[in-house]
Amino acid sequence: MAIDHAEVTPERVAAARRDGDPLAGDLAKAANVLYHDWEADSYDRKWSIDYDQRCIDYARDRFVAVAGTDGWPYRRALEIGCGTGFFLLNLKQAGVLDEGHVTDLSPGMVAAAERNAAGLGFTVSGRVADAESIPYPDASFDLVVGHAVLHHIPDLPVAFREALRVLKPGGRFMFAGEPTRYGDAVARRLSRATWAATTTVTRLPGLRSRWSRPRAELAESSRAAALEAVVDLHTFDPAELAALVRDAGAVGVRTVTEELTAAWFGWPVRTFECAVNPDRLGLGWAMFAYRSWQRLSALDRALSRFVPARFYYNVLITGRRPADR
Ligand SMILES: C[S@@+](CC[C@H](N)C(=O)[O-])C[C@H]1O[C@@H](n2cnc3c(N)ncnc32)[C@H](O)[C@@H]1O
């Protein structure tokens, strides 16, 4: 049903969810559109998204970690919840896929993804679409991907049935960047503490003029954070997510988890970057943050022999539509 955007306040969305209101799913989707339309033009800057070797490697490595290199390049691929196109466009640059189609619930994000694709010289078709009802015929794609989208979708069993429907028999899906239950709880605590400490310290006389963000920008960040809190609908236990996906009809399902100490480092860093004057942080800072994250990620891979998968921050999942259905 159509929701009047004036009704979509963080409080209303949270109350609908808490009270089991039948409109909770539609309100969450409307909040997603508001929040992501609002973020679309500044999203790449905010999340250090680019289409350079760093981001190509990041996307390719996530794909290989869970789905390997069999079948490259996938001929026809669809991304759901594409945002500004970060995942599919970088997978395309990495040689994982040929023909790309991007969809998102937010019109602003689809427009940004098309702009980024054109900037790279790619022809990519974009559509505004809900992952719970994908506007493509059955068996349209060899590959369906998504990054940091599953935790926003109200009805995941429906979304996975849709992803399997639009895949050709034997086709693969792969999703990455989804928060685990434990990892998310730790990351949120660390981020809250970093925000409080940074905004307090950068208000001190002597630091304020150079390090503090303008008040209006901090207020905008706080409003965005309030809406963000109600668009994040799920965190995952990897085994439960795999069971949900098998129940939707997938075969060959596999999950991998990543980032333990890397997330304990990465979330405070990201929050710090949002809280201070961005002019103080140059390329040197960005490279320090990225290289530290890489080193800690390598440590986390070594630790995965001892630390249970559910303690890691990110879950990645892959599987296939059965070849005979
Ligand atoms: C956290 S952003 C990630 C964007 C991009 N995949 C990336 O990794 O940069 C989540 C995206 O999912 C989209 N989204 C949320 N709910 C959706 C739904 N039900 N169907 C399709 N897209 C959705 C949002 O509009 C947003 O662009």
Search tags:
binds S-adenosylmethionine; 7 strands; 50% helix; single chain; 3 domains; Rossmann fold; seven-stranded mixed β-sheet; alpha/beta; 325 residues
Break the fold down into its secondary structure elements and pairings.
Layout: H1 10-18, H2 24-39, H3 43-46, H4 53-67, E1 74-80, H5 86-93, E2 97-104, H6 107-119, E3 125-128, E4 141-147, H7 156-166, E5 167-179, H8 181-201, H9 208-211, H10 215-231, H11 238-247, E6 251-258, H12 261-275, H13 283-303, E7 314-320
Parallel strand pairs: 1-2, 1-4, 2-3, 4-5
Antiparallel strand pairs: 5-7, 6-7
Helix pairs in contact: 1-2, 2-10, 4-5, 8-12, 12-13
The structure holds S-adenosylmethionine (SAM).
CATH topology tier name of the largest domain: Rossmann fold
Tell me the number of helical segments per DSSP (H or I, 4 or more residues long).
13
Instruction: Work out the strand percent.
Output: 15-25%
Question: What's the domain count?
Answer: 3
C-alpha end-to-end distance: 32 Å
**Largest sheet data:** 7 strands, mixed
Alpha-beta content class:
alpha/beta
Overall outline: globular
Outline the low-pLDDT stretches.
Answer: none
Kindly provide the radius of gyration, computed on alpha-carbon positions and rounded to a whole number of angstroms: 20 Å
CATH architecture assignment of the largest domain: 3-Layer(aba) Sandwich
CATH class category name of the largest domain: Alpha Beta
Provide the succession of SSEs.
HHHHEHEHEEHEHHHHEHHE
DSSP summary, beta strand count: 7
Helix fraction by DSSP (H/I, runs of at least 4): 40-55%
Oligomer: single chain
Ligand identities: S-adenosylmethionine
**Strand order in the largest sheet:** 3-2-1-4-5-7-6
